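the two lines:
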Amino acid sequence: MRGAGVLVLSLLACGCALERGRETPAPPAASLPHEVEQAGVESFRNDCLACHSEDLVRQQRLTKAQWAKNLDKMRGWGSPTEPENIEALTTYLAAAFHREAGSYAPETIPAEKVPALFDALPDGPFGGGDRERGRALYADRCAPCHGDDARGGEMGTALAGRLCLDRAAEIAEIVRVGRARMPGNEETTDAEVRDLLAYLRSLPAQPRN
Amino acid sequence: MIRRRDFLEAGGLAALGGLAGGTTWAAAASDSTQRSLLVHSLRPENLATPIEWFDRLVTPTDVFFIRSHFGAPAIVRDARLRIEGLVERPLDLTMGDLGALPQVTVTAVLQCSGNGRALHDPRVPGIQWIHGAMGQASWTGIRLGDLLERAGVVSDAAHVGFEGKDVPPKPAVPPFHRSIPLDRAVDPTTLVALRMNGEPLTHAHGAPFRLVVPGWGGNHWMKWLGTVRLQREATRGFFMETGYRLPRSPVEPGAAVRPADTVPLTTVPVKSLIARPTDGSRLPRGRQEVVGIAFSGEAPIAKVEVSIDAGATWREAALEGESGVGRWQVFRLRFDAGPGAVRALARAVDRSGNAQPERASWNPSGYFWNAWHSVQWEVV
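prediction for all of em together
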C-alpha cells in the first residue's frame, strides 16, 4: 500500500464508536503522483469525514466529473474544503472510487447491536452539569467552529438537537481525542464536559423558520 | 463489532447448507445468530435489510432497513405533534393525546426511493442501495385526515407540510422538509404512526411519530415528525425542488436533465424481487422453489411470472397474503431441476396493467430501480 493510502482514523462518531481504524483503499498503483494522493487523502479526512463516515464515500463509483459536481454541492452545503485542495481531493476520489473500482460489499452489523447505535447512554460522570458555566465554556472553546447557536459553523458541525447529546461518553471522547479537523484536548475535565452538555441540552432542538 | 467476515461466512454457510442437503438461506436467516443488517453508512445511519428476508409478508423490525439524511436527532422525551398553518384550531398534541384517539393499522411497504441505485448504469451518487432499502410492516396510528378534521382545514389549504426533528449537520444544509397534496394527506391509509409491527416505534424508525403514506416513496414517510403545516403551496427547498424528482419523460442513460424537465416522484412503480434462491448459491437436485415479493404503489398486484429459460417462457407464480395498493404479496413457484446452472427471472404486473420493465428507467438520481430480477444458482 502506497503513501497515505492507509488512514488510521481516530473517529468517534456521534452515535457510534465503530469507525476507528478503518482503511481507505489505495488508488490503483501508479495512477497518482504521491503529493496529489497525499493532499487528496488529507482533504478527504479533514473535509468529508466531519459529517460522513468513510463507508458512505467508499461505496461510490463515480467519474471525475461526477465527483467534481458532488464536491461542489457539498461545498455549497458547508464542506470546508479550501479552493487549493479541490483538485487534489477530486483527483483522489476519482482515482480511488471510480466506475471500474469493482463491486462494493457492505459490511454487516448484527441486528442485536443496531439499537445501541440509537440509544441514549448513561450520563455516568457527565450528568448534572451547570448550564451557565457550560455557556461560557462553549462560547470560549466551541463556538468559533460550531457556531454561536451550536447549529454548525464554518468548520464544525451542528450539535444542538443531535443524538450525540444523549451519548455523553462519546462526546467526552471526541472532545479529548478530536475528529476530522477538530483538535482533541486531553486536558478537558469531566466537570467541563458535564457543564458543556448541560448547556447544549438546554438549547432549542429546532430553529423556528 | 462489524466484520466483513460475517458477510463471507453467511455466504459460505448457505453454500455448505446446499451441499449438505436442503438447508436454505431462509433457515439460516431465521437463526438468531444470522440476523444482521448491511451497513451502507454509519454516519448518517443507513442500514439495509439482507435480501433473504424478502421471502415473507412482514419484515421483522430488528432487520428492517434504516434510512436517515442527517443522522438521528436527540431522543425526544416530551413528544409533541403540532398541527398549524391554515387551520381553524392549531393543535399541540402529546403522546397521551394521540394515543387516546382512534387507532388504525395499515400493512404497507416502505421503500426508499433510492433502493436499487447501485444497479442503475451509469452509476450516480448517493447511498448505493442494492435491494435492501425496503420492507413491509404493520403501521398503527391515527389517520392524518382525522387530525386535520379536528384542526379544521381552512378552505384555501392545498398542501400539507411535514417537519422532522433531525438537524442538518451544517447551517447551509437545507432542512429535510417535505409536503404532500391535501388529497393524499386525507386518504384513509395516510397515518401518523406510533407503532410498527405492534410495538412502539423505535428511535431508529422515527419515534415518537412517523408519517405513513402507503404506495408512495419512503421520502414522504417523515420520521421524527414534529410539525404538520397546512399550506397553500407545496413546500419549497432542495428536498422538494431538486431532490426526489424524476425526468418528466424517460431519458437516455447518463443524460443531463434540467430541473424544469423534472416532476416530483410519488407512487412506487411495480416491482418484484426474488429472495431465494440467492444469487450464486448451490442447491440439491430435485424440487426448486423460487420465492419473493411483489408490490406496486399504483394498484394491487395482478400476477407474478417466473421464467427459468431466460425469458422464452413464463409461468405464473402462486401469490400469498392480502392484496392492496402499496402492499406486498409473497410469490412462490416450484419446479424440478437436475444438475446444472439455473437462472430465474421474475416480473410482476399490477391491476392497472403496469408491467415491471425488463430494464429500469435510468434517471440522474437513481430512483425507483425495478427491472426484472435475475438470480442464478447451481443445482448439484
